[in-house]
């Protein structure tokens, strides 16, 4: 009897009986995309700005959820910087499971520290450890002021990080204190920097930037309409970053002034 | 982007208004809303007109498609155009997908998210084919839908996983997103979805057409059967970060099929591409050969790509080779043992299955209680792969005695144990025996 069993096994080397069900598939191997939100939680963000930001971020999560579809697993990592630099969760969280933990504002603007922290985690051994293919990350910076620490050196180091280099970068300045030139230093171009002066604008801009960059980031290269020649590597390099800048600028021109009450009045 | 608000009304081209009831989904070119029009619910695709290169020509093309009508009832085809609003934005109405259909995306994911409208929390619900039969039938239906489309002289242009709904119990298929469908040779700016686009489109040297559709169709079929990307293997994973340049390389300039027999540089990686590794062992050679051809010579020579009719024949054969053993094992006949040329044996329980040899096939078709053959398999003129022409049944009065039942509309002739041929009119049956011969007309079969 035992002999017979062995025989069956021997002859079915090719047929692994336990695992040949044509219907039992696992989910297709997904590419992964991490969206980094770098959020200023310094004291000046207190009140309406932080209230608006918390609300819009909560509302944003379900919208981003629809973006990845079958091919891409979208994960979220939130790094906040006030006096201290802190991750909302100890690792990037898949968008299906992500829950926004409301932020509070306090202290100074340690943006340089935040760049250092981001640089150290943006690696294969850190937050970008998906075994399968990864798209370059989306990095979205939001701040209402100027760094209170020396950010230049930290930013220079960050710029040597390959993930950062290939990543999609966008920045949102909140209120009149935020410095667009400094933010353009971060993103690498003015096109991907926008400025919100009111709560309504803040909400709209966060949504536009986050959804647009998630869409572009997770959908990989799209064909440009007017190509009719063999594309070179040179032409497609940074195509996504350019597209992001273009789409953000297009969206901004269509943006209505949702409310006129400025962040910088009435304090 | 001009978004519509719930409750808002949109004027239809030929009068009447469609009222927005909710959002169904969003895509690259616009948003799909649930609307009410003339007392019925419809889906309204509403364009982000900034994303359409030439809105006038695009609208005219949809109008032409509406006039031409769908190639078959497998398409959720544009039905009515709306008027253009002041910004030039417009949309069209199409029928809603029935609840019994799931999106291809969810099938690839193996689950769908169901979101609680109150808390916003999402839970995963499994989405799987309930039988191998349904899965292969879905493949045949997809191939057939594109055959019909291409025969109508049109190309789909951006064939991808977002383009289908499938009933996982029956294999019925609905093709959606039909708004970029255009006469072959025309293109309104859509490039397609990376991973599904033909390499020449990725490289920028061709616009979508019927030939590039064929490549995309092969990718869709590969993904449905092998549950992975045909071009994503070791070579691609080495890049770690998929930049624009690496996509141009791996899907355009230097695309290498994961099972290219001549080039092993891009084999699937265990731990990442387990589905592909597993399923590549399961499918018969004639299916694998068709994919190898599509993704090797078919990369550089569009005319070498498998035509729909060929795919259809291969998958009709594959469907006829599914064996459902009484022990619960269901698989393709190539995964059963072959003690002799005329017999398959279940490797799990040892049950033996006889076979039928059709005179127009160079392979033997396995038989088991409940196995069927279709019109197209017994009539070379027929394209009907859905009507069951014959079935292997158990005699109601003599348990244990198996026979064929003629469920077609034609009379067959069958050789009985007395050595004579008898007429078998529709609805009648005859026993299976060692010397059985069946004459269906031009096609005949022997046990």
Q: Largest interface here, residues on each chain?
A: A-B, 57 and 73 residues
Give the mean pLDDT of chain A.
82
So what's the overall shape of chain A?
A: globular
Number of separate strands of chain B: 29
The computed structural class of chain A is alpha/beta
Helix- and strand-based class of chain B?
alpha+beta
Strand order of the largest sheet of chain B: 1-2-3-4-6-5
Strand composition percent of chain B: 25-35%
Helix content of chain A: 25-40%
Q: Which regions of chain A have little confidence, pLDDT < 50, spanning 5+ residues? A: 1-17
Largest sheet of chain B: 6 strands, antiparallel
Number of helices of chain B: 12
Q: Largest sheet of chain A at a glance? A: 7 strands, mixed
Overview of the structural elements:
The complex is a heterodimer of chains A (about 270) and B (about 450). With about 270 residues, chain A is α/β, with parallel strands linked by helices. Chain A is built from 9 helices and 8 strands. Chain A has helices spanning about 1-10, 50-65, 110-120, 150-160, 160-165, 180-185, 200-220, 235, 240-255; strands spanning about 30-40, 70-80, 85, 95, 135, 140-145, 170-175, 195. In chain A, strands 1, 2, 3, 4, 6, 7 and 8 form a 7-stranded mixed β-sheet that branches. In chain A, a hairpin with a 3-residue loop joins strand 2 (about 70-80) and strand 3. In chain A, helix 2 (about 50-65) runs parallel beside helix 7, helix 3 runs parallel beside helix 4 and helix 7 runs antiparallel to helix 9. Chain A starts with a helix and ends in a 14-residue tail after the last helix. The model of chain A is unreliable at about 1-15 (pLDDT under 50). Chain B has 12 helices and 29 strands. In chain B, about 25% of the residues lie in helices and about 25% in strands. Chain B is α+β, with helices and mostly antiparallel strands. In chain B, about 45% of the residues are buried. In chain B, strands 1-2-3-4-6-5 form a 6-stranded antiparallel β-sheet, with helices on one face. A 6-stranded antiparallel β-sheet of chain B has the order 21-20-29-28-25-26, with no helix packed on it. A 4-stranded antiparallel β-sheet of chain B has the order 22-23-24-27. Chain B is globular, with a radius of gyration of 25 Å. Classes of the chains: A alpha/beta (about 270), B alpha+beta (about 450). Strand 5 (about 135) of chain A pairs parallel with strand 14 (about 240) of chain B, so a sheet runs across the interface.
């Amino acid at each position: 009897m035992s002999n017979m069993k062995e025989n069956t096994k021997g002859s079915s080397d090719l047929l692994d009986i336990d695992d040949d069900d044509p219907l039992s598939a696992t989910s297709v191997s997904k590419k992964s995309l991490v969206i980094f939100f770098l959020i200023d939680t310094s004291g000046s963000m207190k009140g309406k700005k932080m209230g608006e930001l918390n609300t819009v971020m909560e509302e944003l999560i379900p919208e981003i959820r629809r973006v990845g579809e079958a091919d891409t697993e979208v994960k979220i990592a939130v790094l906040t910087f006030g006096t201290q630099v802190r991750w909302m969760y100890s690792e990037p969280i898949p968008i299906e499971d992500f829950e926004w933990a409301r932020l509070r504002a306090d202290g100074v603007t340690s943006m340089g520290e935040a760049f250092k922290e981001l640089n150290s985690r943006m690696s294969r051994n850190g937050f970008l450890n998906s075994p399968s293919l990864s798209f370059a990350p989306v990095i979205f910076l939001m701040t209402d002021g100027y760094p209170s620490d020396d950010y230049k050196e930290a930013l220079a180091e960050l710029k040597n990080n390959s993930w950062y280099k290939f990543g999609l970068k966008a920045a949102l300045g909140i209120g009149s204190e935020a410095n667009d030139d400094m933010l353009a230093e971060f993103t690498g171009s003015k096109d991907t920097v926008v400025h919100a002066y009111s709560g309504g604008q803040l909400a709209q801009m966060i949504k536009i930037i986050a959804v647009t960059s998630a869409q572009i980031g997770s959908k990989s290269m799209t064909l440009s309409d007017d190509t009719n020649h063999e594309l070179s590597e040179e032409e497609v390099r940074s195509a996504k970053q350019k597209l992001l800048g273009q789409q953000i600028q297009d969206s901004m021109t269509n943006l209505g002034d949702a409310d006129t009450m400025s962040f910088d009045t009435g304090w | 982007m001009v978004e519509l608000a719930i409750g808002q009304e949109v004027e239809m081209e030929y009068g009447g208004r469609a009222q927005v009831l909710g959002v169904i989904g969003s895509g690259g070119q616009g948003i799909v809303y649930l609307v009410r029009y003339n007392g019925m619910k419809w889906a309204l695709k509403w364009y982000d007109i900034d994303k359409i290169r030439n809105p006038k020509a695009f609208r005219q093309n949809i109008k032409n498609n509406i006039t031409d009508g769908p190639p078959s009832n497998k398409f959720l085809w544009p039905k009515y155009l709306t008027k253009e609003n002041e910004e030039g934005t417009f949309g069209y109405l199409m029928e809603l997908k029935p609840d019994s259909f799931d999106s291809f995306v969810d099938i690839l994911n193996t689950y769908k998210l169901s979101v609680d409208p109150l808390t916003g929390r999402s839970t995963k619900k499994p989405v799987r084919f309930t039988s191998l039969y349904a899965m292969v039938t879905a493949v045949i239906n997809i191939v057939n839908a594109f055959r019909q489309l291409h025969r109508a002289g049109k190309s789909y242009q951006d064939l991808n996983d977002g383009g289908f709904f499938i009933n996982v119990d029956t294999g019925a298929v609905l093709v959606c997103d039909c708004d970029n469908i255009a006469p072959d040779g025309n293109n309104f700016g859509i490039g397609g979805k990376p991973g599904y686009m033909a390499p020449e489109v990725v490289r920028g040297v061709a616009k979508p057409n019927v030939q590039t559709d064929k490549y995309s169709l092969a990718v869709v079929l590969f993904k449905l059967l092998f549950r992975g990307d045909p071009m994503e293997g070791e070579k691609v994973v080495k890049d770690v970060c998929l930049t624009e340049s690496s996509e141009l390389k791996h899907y355009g300039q230097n695309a290498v099929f994961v099972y290219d027999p001549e080039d092993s540089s891009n084999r699937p990686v265990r731990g990442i591409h387990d589905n592909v590794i597993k399923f590549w062992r399961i499918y018969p050679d004639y299916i694998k050969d068709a994919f190898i051809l599509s993704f090797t010579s078919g990369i550089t020579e569009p005319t070498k790509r498998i035509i729909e009719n060929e795919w259809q024949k291969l998958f009709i054969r594959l469907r006829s080779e599914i064996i459902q053993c009484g022990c619960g094992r269901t698989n393709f006949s190539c995964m059963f043992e072959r003690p002799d040329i005329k017999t398959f044996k279940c490797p799990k329980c040892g049950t033996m299955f006889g076979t039928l040899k059709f005179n127009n096939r160079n392979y033997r078709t396995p038989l088991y209680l409940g196995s069927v053959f279709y019109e197209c398999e017994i009539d070379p003129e027929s394209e009907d792969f859905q009507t069951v022409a014959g079935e292997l049944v158990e005699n109601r009065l003599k348990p244990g005695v198996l026979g064929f039942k003629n469920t077609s509309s034609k009379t067959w002739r069958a050789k009985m144990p007395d050595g004579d041929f008898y007429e078998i009119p529709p609805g009648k049956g005859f026993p299976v025996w060692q010397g059985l011969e069946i004459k269906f007309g031009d096609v005949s079969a022997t046990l």
